[in-house]
Amino acid sequence: MKLFARFFRYIFGVVVTAAIAWVVRKVIQSATPVPNGSRRGPVRVEPASTPQELFRDPVCGTYVAGNISHSLVQGSETLHFCSRSCVDQYRAPDKLAAGA
Ligand SMILES: [Zn+2]
Predict the structure, then answer these.
(1) What's the 77 CA to ligand 1 centre distance in angstroms?
(2) 45 in a domain, yes or no?
(3) How many angstroms is it from 93 CA to the middle of ligand 1?
(4) How far does the centroid of ligand 1 lie from the alpha carbon of residue 59, in Å?
(5) What is the pLDDT of residue 69?
(6) For the chain, how many structural domains are there in total?
(7) What's residue 88's pLDDT?
């Protein structure tokens, strides 16, 4: 019966250790703010979240961010387009309208 008692004490010790580890982990988790859902790690500011000025595409009316737009300088102003085809359409509307 001595062996059984030692075995029981060993199992008890393992369970208690696991329980303490679980509680400690829970406390650390609740104390640390989680920035992105359940993803943990160093806090980083996403570059995509920085506000970008929006420009209206004069051809199709889509609002496009200045850093990803296809720009076309006309005189003193810069026009922003959502795509290359919109730029082409703006430059030569008659040619594209004719179906060339
Ligand atoms: Zn467009």
Answers:
(1) 18
(2) no
(3) 13
(4) 6
(5) 96
(6) 2
(7) 95
Which pLDDT value is given to residue 47?
Answer: 63
**Domain co-membership, 57 together with 90:** yes
**Which residues have CB less than 5 Å away from ligand 1 (the ion)?**
57, 59-60, 62, 82, 86
Q: Using alpha carbons only, what angle is made at residue 48 by residues 79 and 28, rounded to the nearest 5 degrees?
A: 170
Ligand 1 centroid to 67 CA: how many Å? 15
Q: How far does residue 86's CA lie from ligand 1's centre (Å)?
A: 5
Q: Is residue 47 part of a domain?
A: no
In the predicted model, residues of the chain with pLDDT beneath 70 are: 1, 33-41, 44-49, 95-100
Q: Write b or e for each residue in 30-50: b if 16 or more Cβ atoms lie within 10 A of its Cβ, otherwise e.
A: eeeeeeeeeeeeeeeeeeeee
Specify if 89 maps to a domain.
yes
CA of 10 to the centre of ligand 1 (A): 71
Longest CA–CA separation in the chain, Å: 99
Residue 5: give the domain boundaries.
1-32
List 65's β-bridge partners, or say none.
Answer: 54
67 domain residue, yes or no:
yes
